[in-house]
Amino acid sequence: MPKRPPPPDGPLTAHLGFWLRFVSNHVSGAFRQKLEQRGVSIAEWACLRELYERDSMAPSALATLLGMTRGGITKLIDKLVTRQLVSRSANASDSRGQFVRLTPAGRRLVPTLTELADLNEREFFGHVPPETMQAVTRFLRDLVEHHHLRSVPLS
Fold this sequence. Notes:
The structure is a single chain. The protein has helices at 16-36, 42-52, 59-66, 70-82, 104-125, 130-146, and strands spanning 86-91, 94-102. The chain is mainly α. It has a single domain (15-146), classed as Arc Repressor Mutant, subunit A (Orthogonal Bundle). The longest helix is centred in the last third of the chain and has 22 residues, at 104-125. The two termini are 22 Å apart.
């Protein structure tokens, strides 16, 4: 990727929000491209990654965890079922309910996608000293808590 000069100083660049968005767009855009080369979207990655940590989960709980609507999670799960990365099973205690879980193919894919996430982190932040990364992370988590931010960025 050719290096471009940073935006010139001016009214926009005087705002921290500008710099947060500027960096975020580049970091997430590069990660999105890496995932797309594997045929996976950011939302699919987030869903797969959350399921990787659990045996199974109700779609409604997954929707809440990811900050998605029930309709949105249903469409996402449908895509992952079609690609045989996720399976659905009936809830034995509630015939109306379902559980979703990773298939063996989905379970094998997640570590590969995690490596892409780690690579993306190293590419963008590998030059930053660990203590600075810790301070920035604390700062951002503080903002999340202070403003009660809950939705996971999926686009």
